[in-house]
Each structure stands twice: as C-alpha cells, then as structure tokens.
Specification:
Elements lengths: L1 H9 L1 E4 L22 E5 L6 H10 L3 E3 L5 E3 L7 E4 L10 H14 L4 E3 L3 H4 L4 H4 L23 H12 L3 H4 L2 H12 L5 H12 L26 H13 L4 H5 L1
Parallel strand pairs: 1-2, 2-5, 5-6
Antiparallel strand pairs: 3-4
Helix pairs in contact: 9-10
Length: 251
Amino acid sequence: SNSGSSVRAKFRVVRCAVTPPSANSTNFPLSGMEEEPLIGFITDTEGNFDYWRACVEDSRVVSFNAEGDLVFARPSSRDVFVFGGDVFDKGPGDMRIASALVRFRVAHRDRVFLLVGNRDLNKLRLTAELTESGIDVPQPVPLYPRSPPQLSYRAFLEKVAKAQGISVEEADGAANRLRWILDHTMTANGAFELRRSELAMTGARGGRLWQAALRPSIEAGSEQEPPTDEDVVRSFLESVELEDGFVWQYL
C-alpha cells in the first residue's frame, strides 16, 4: 500500500544478530532529516538473559544505561523499538527481561511496542489450572502437528512418587502441578528450577514487576534462605494475578 511504502521510506529495521545496513545505503533516503529513524527489533529471548544482553549490546537502536535500564541509544532520534514476543520459559531471565521491557515501554509509549507470543499469553492459564484439586484432570492443550508426546498429570505424579518413595496423593501439590504444567503442557522443560535460580540470583521473592534494574538490596552480612518450592509457585502466580505482576504488566 502507499502508506506502507511511506513507512518503509522513513524507517530502516535493525534486527538482533543481523548486520545493519551500511550508513551510506541509498535504499532509504533521509529526505532531509539529520538522523534517519531506525526500528530496532528483538524477539524470542525465552528467558535467556545472556542472549537478551547480547542483542541489546549489538543494537544500534537500544542500549543499557549506567543503571542497567534499557534506553534509546540515540536520545535525539525518533527511533522505534519492537519486541516480538516470547519473553519467557527457557532461561533464568524471565523477571529481569520482562521488567526491563515494561519499564522501557512506560517511558516511551509512543515509540516502544511489545508484541505477545504464545509463551507470554499461556501464563494466564496458571490462575485457573493451579487451583484445580483433582489428579485426573484433562489435558489443557490438544495435540497439534509436531507436538511432544502428552503425559497426564497422574502419570507424571506416578513417576515422581516412585522416585521419592511416596504415594501419588502425597506427590500431588501446587509445586508438582506447576512442574507438570510447565514441562508437559507449555514445552517449558525445567522452567520451575530456572525460576528458582533467578530468585536465588537476584534475591527477589514474589512476582511483582521490578521498578529498577538494580539487584534488590540485601542487608550486608545477612544470608537469605534459598528459594523454596512455595516461593517459586508464588512467583509464577503473582506474576499474572497481581496488577503489578511482571507477566500481567507485559501483557
């Protein structure tokens, strides 16, 4: 369309891990503007904080400031930033990445756009599925092409019970239900322990949005107890249940 051509004439997209066009390219004329606006695009970090950091450090559009917050690399430009979705699931960076993106969006609502992927949206299921009490619950996700083999919650508990030498009923609980949901219905294998790692690494508890990029302060000389299963469950639930939960705020 004519409008699409107009947008493409004014902006150049700069994606993560892609060598940006040369500065003297003539495909996108400046039309008299001193600084050609760029569109920065990063997507599918899936909790991988090292990948996220590398993408930002490689970007011409965004960067980290001295406090560790996400900022536009060229303050006087009209650059735009788009995150393509799938913030969560496969690394110990869910809370930090989501909070950084939301703070950036709040600071620049007209220039920062956060898209939603399946790994972001499916977290809304937790408020319903974690409150179920039965063991013989239906599979929450139907089979789809190339989907992994399904494992029922009862079959999952039977494996846990056998490994721990306890009954299926004793194995049933919010922590194991969450492990099953993540590993076997969200293809987020290991996400439970990855969240525990991020809680331990940062000293955070709960699922509230971080209002600053810095590590939460811990009293000097004190040792915080390692995150429990209950802390991990609370983090996942609060992230979608609370108004300032980091998943809810991202969505």
